[in-house]
Amino acid sequence: MPGQQFQLTQFSAARERIGSAVLRTPMVPSPSLSERTGVPVFLKMEHHQTTGSFKLRGATNALLQLDEDTRRRGVVCVSTGNHGRALAFASKRLGVDCTICMSKLVPQNKVEAIRELGAQIVITGASQDEAQLEADRLVAENGLTLVPPFDHHDVICGQGTLGLEIMEDVPDAHTILVPLSGGGLIAGVAAAAKETNPAVKIIGLSMERGAAMAASLKAGRPVQVTEEPSLADSLGGGIGLQNQYTFQIARDLVDQVILLPETEIAEGIRHAYWQERQVIEGGAAVGIAALLNGDLKPEGPVVMLLSGCNIDMSLHHRIIGGENVDLAEETKG
Ligand SMILES: *Cc1c(COP(=O)(O)O)cnc(C)c1O
Q1: Keyword annotations for this protein (predicted)?
Q2: What is the pLDDT of residues 212-242, one digit of tens each?
């Protein structure tokens, strides 16, 4: 079982290693969601993590495991989202050169945001795949080390530190709700939490539009899906046809996967804002959405992992104002 490659001692070691570089985010009760569901609901406020998402945990853990020589040559990734931000931030802190490859399609404001974090930027190609080819070239020819966003042992161990914190703060947790894309987050959290209490239920949440892990679990092997614009943009992208870790761990340790339509993700963002006074991105709103729409009928204490806050604030403004935003319509042009 691949989960066995991830033992409690490894998560504890990761926690020790990254402890001074990441926040131990708060766990707070949600009276409104507890009232609605009839069971205690707690929010793990990981959207307050430095860089605005949990990705800092995995990126920091991966960087700290590299030896001196490897660090001196620098690291590379292709993400322009939360992983890119996290890797750029962690690299700067540790004095490691970080290169982020991105396609010509990436909007200027995203390019600038990553540049401000101190990363070197290589703009190349017309797609994410072409940017990946450039990253592969930098690895092969210049000796850089690729730090991928999810399918990597040390990244998974870093994200799994969240599982330890959750089980410490809510030892009687019955169900943990985890946003799901490539599966690094859910693999780490599920392995760490189930080794602490094998009875705890792990539920993955994705958007209906282009949920690669859900489609792969259904097919019994990693498959590709068509990417579509979604409010949960940080949950987009594939799981990799050569997936090494996250597919098998998700298959073995995730109890259920729920897919949410765009209107309900928007409802989750609204609820977080008006009832909980929290700004969260679409990818973090899927758990709230599943509780609100009644897809999920929890039986005991629920922990909801709020994974990130990096949403375009003018988009957020429109959503909380009640506008019915459909990004697929808007990008048709
Ligand atoms: C990356 C990300 C996820 C999904 O994590 P995976 O490890 O890819 O499953 C969820 N929420 C936010 C905010 C993210 O940035």
Answers
A1: Lyase, Pyridoxal phosphate
A2: 999 999 999 999 998 889 999 999 989 999 9
Residue 3 falls within a domain, yes or no? no
User: Residues with beta carbon inside 6 Å of ligand 1?
Assistant: 53, 55, 82, 150, 179-186, 234-235, 281, 283-284, 307-308
Ligand 1 centroid to residue 244 C-alpha, Å: 18
Q: What is the pLDDT of residue 35?
A: 96
93 shares its domain with 215:
no
Q: How many domains in the chain? A: 2
Could you tell me which residues come within 8 angstroms of residue 178 by beta carbon, excluding any fewer than 6 positions away? 185, 186, 189, 190, 202, 203, 204, 205, 287, 305, 307
| Per-residue CA distances from 271 to 48, 107, 321 (Å) | 17, 29, 12
Distance 146 CA to ligand 1 centre (A): 18
Q: What is the pLDDT of residue 5?
A: 77
pTM over 0.85: yes
Distances in Å between the Cα of 281 and the Cα atoms of 76, 103, 180 are: 25, 23, 14
Q: Report, as ranges of residue numbers, the positions in the chain whose pLDDT lies below 50.
A: 1
In a domain? residue 2: no
- Residue 149 Cα, ligand 1 centroid: separation in angstroms? 9
- The CATH number of the domain holding residue 288 is 3.40.50.1100
pLDDT tens readout for residues 54-112: 999 999 999 999 999 999 999 999 988 899 999 999 999 999 999 999 888 887 888 88
**What is the domain extent for residue 192?**
8-53+152-328
CA of 115 to the centre of ligand 1 (A): 21
Whether residue 17 sits in one domain with residue 92: no
Pocket residue to mutate for ligand 1, from 56, 159, 234, most atoms within 8 A of Cβ: 234
Would you give the distance in Å from CA 76 to the centre of its chain? Answer: 18
